């Protein structure tokens, strides 16, 4: 699993150049992305950094022109955080346009999206958004496994702890991101690399620790 962070500081940027990390970028992220680093493009809807539909699409197009479509792992269609119906209505018109830029389109799954129907054929990457309780719960796990069966990749957002990294791994996520490196990158980079090393050398035995998700919700 590849962790996508923000290119905050020279040590993080060097780790990205070395292929140890990917980069998650947004319209509000102004740092230059290191050469060769895989990129995930979020839309900024979570956190009130969304510039508007046309402005977001122009930004995405400009990033793809600058860095090349082959560098992009996915781009997340505009969504309405924590609102499954609103996200479905807002995202559907943009998923095809993202694909038209030569980039895989990601759909932000929210609490309750399974009840409305997931538009599987319209996107390439399932992005686990929504509330913390939902995104690490049984429905998100089931959707993740269905996505993998359908040949799609899975990404989990807001991953800032070893416990949540383990949950993402158990779900079969290909990538995860968080803001962990944006705060104290020098100290937190070493800790994050330790988590990833532990994850790679000690696969998650999630089934033997049924309290893991409940602990994470309260973390």
Straight-line distance between termini: 22 Å
CATH architecture: Alpha-Beta Barrel
CATH topology annotation:
TIM Barrel
Average predicted local confidence, pLDDT:
93
The count of β-strands is 8
CATH superfamily: Phosphoenolpyruvate-binding domains
Number of helices: 9
Strand order of the largest sheet: 1-2-3-4-5-6-7-8
In which range does the helix fraction lie?
A: 40-55%
Write up what this structure looks like.
By secondary structure, this protein is of the alpha/beta class. It has one domain: TIM Barrel, CATH 3.20.20. Helices cover 42% and strands 15% of the residues. It contains 9 helices and 8 strands. It has an 8-stranded parallel beta barrel with strand order 1-2-3-4-5-6-7-8. α4 links the parallel β5 and β6. α7 crosses α8.
Mind sketching the topology for me?
Elements: E1 2-5, H1 10-17, E2 22-25, E3 39-41, H2 53-67, E4 72-76, H3 84-100, E5 105-109, H4 113-116, E6 125-128, H5 132-135, H6 138-149, E7 153-156, H7 162-171, E8 175-177, H8 185-201, H9 212-217
Parallel strand pairs: 1-2, 1-8, 2-3, 3-4, 4-5, 5-6, 6-7, 7-8
Helix pairs in contact: 7-8
Key terms:
8 strands; 219 residues; globular; eight-stranded parallel β-barrel; TIM Barrel; alpha/beta
Task: Quickly describe the structure.
The chain has 219 residues and is of the alpha/beta class. It has helices at residues 10-17, 53-67, 84-100, 113-116, 132-135, 138-149, 162-171, 185-201, 212-217; strands at residues 2-5, 22-25, 39-41, 72-76, 105-109, 125-128, 153-156, 175-177.
